[in-house]
Amino acid sequence: MSDCIFCKIANREIPSDLVYEDDVIAAFHDLEPQAPVHVLIVPKKHIESLDDVDFEDMEAMGWLMKKVKDIAKDLGLENGYRLVCNTGEDGMQTVKHLHFHLLGRRKMTWPPG
Ligand code: 5GP
Ligand code: ZN
């Protein structure tokens, strides 16, 4: 999608601090980190939110989930991490391209705000 910031990052049209990339997904540091490690993992395909995942996206979504632990390991998150997917208005999703926040290297609190 031409005016989507995460599409542009995933397509390398604008620079970002990439930590992982393949044909299907990209992972890059969040602009405003909420933890010592705060990375966003996105499918390269423009999918607006978790609400818009379709059957044809199953392979990409499965691959993304499989890669989470590899990305976490590469970032040194041996002690655990949190994966967050804000969805829609109540979920406080601000960027309308599906993304998973990978947060780590500090103790998280529960429940989230
Ligand atoms: P959301 O609130 O939609 O779950 O999360 C969007 C996240 O994207 C926020 O944590 C915000 O800091 C991050 N973000 C917004 N614009 C950019 C950007 O241009 N580059 C990067 N790396 N992160 C961004
Ligand atoms: Zn997009």
CATH superfamily: HIT-like
Our Rg estimate from Cα atoms comes to 14 Å
Structural class: alpha+beta
Q: Uncertain spans, ≥5 residues at pLDDT below 50?
A: none
Query: What small molecules are bound in this structure?
Result: guanosine-5'-monophosphate, zinc ion
- Kindly report how far apart the N and C termini lie: 31 Å
Number of helices: 2
Largest sheet: 5 strands, antiparallel
Assembly category: single chain
CATH architecture: 2-Layer Sandwich
Series of secondary-structure elements, N-terminal to C-terminal: HEEEHEE
The CATH topology turns out to be HIT family, subunit A
Percent of residues in helices comes to: 10-25%
CATH C-level class is: Alpha Beta
Give me the side-by-side strand order of the main sheet. 1-2-3-5-4
Say how many strands there are: 5
Q: What's the number of structural domains?
A: 1
Estimate the global geometry from the Cα principal axes: globular
Strand content: 15-25%
